[in-house]
Amino acid sequence: MASKEMLDMLNKAIARELQVTIQYMWQHVMWKGLKGFAVKDELKSTAITEMKHAEEIAERLTYLGGTPTTKPEPIFVGGSLKEMIEHDKNDEEGAIKMYKEIIRKANDEGDQVTKRMFEKILADEEEHHDTFSGLLEEI
Predict the structure, then answer these.
(1) Where are the alpha helices (H) located in the chain, listed in sequence order?
(2) Least enclosed by CB within 10 Å: which of 7, 35, 107, 109?
């Protein structure tokens, strides 16, 4: 099965996905002003995608013999919309880096299922990063 290092990496990914699920959903709820109205649905949609990632990773971790964490990474809701989106963009950059490391580790361990799963999730995270980067141009 998977190494302890891989199990720990997957749990860190779950904690990150839980964090941004809550973070983006609360930002969706707390938006203000015209610009907030323009992005609130994107925040909600992204939060739901992140929640699905957490579930998928937790299922894989359980299959590999681990126990999924229930504790998110620190949540940052933010004050202004610009502050929220800047932080969200940075969180996506961190996820992209982390998921590339997980893909390498899964490949090294011969775990093609985890590798393919994270390649798909990585594509979503890159899309989220692109969305947040684009939103910052108008905020």
Answers:
(1) 4-30, 33-63, 81-108, 112-136
(2) 107
Domain tally, the chain:
1
Length of the chain equals: 139
Q: Which domain holds residue 39?
A: 4-136
**DSSP result, 71-95:** -PSPP---SSHHHHHHHHHHHHHHH
Instruction: Name the pTM for this structure.
Output: 0.94
Name the residue among 81, 30, 67, 25 with its Cα closest to residue 49. Answer: 25
- Residue 37's alpha-carbon distances to 23, 58, 82, in angstroms, are 17, 33, 13
- pLDDT tens, residue order, the chain (139 aa): 799 999 999 999 999 999 999 999 999 998 878 777 888 999 999 999 999 999 999 999 999 999 999 999 999 998 888 999 999 999 999 999 999 999 999 999 999 999 999 999 999 999 999 999 998 887 7
C-beta separation of 105 from 9 below 8 A: yes
CA distance linking residue 120 with residue 117, whole number of Å: 5
User: 87 with 76: CB under 8 angstroms?
Assistant: yes
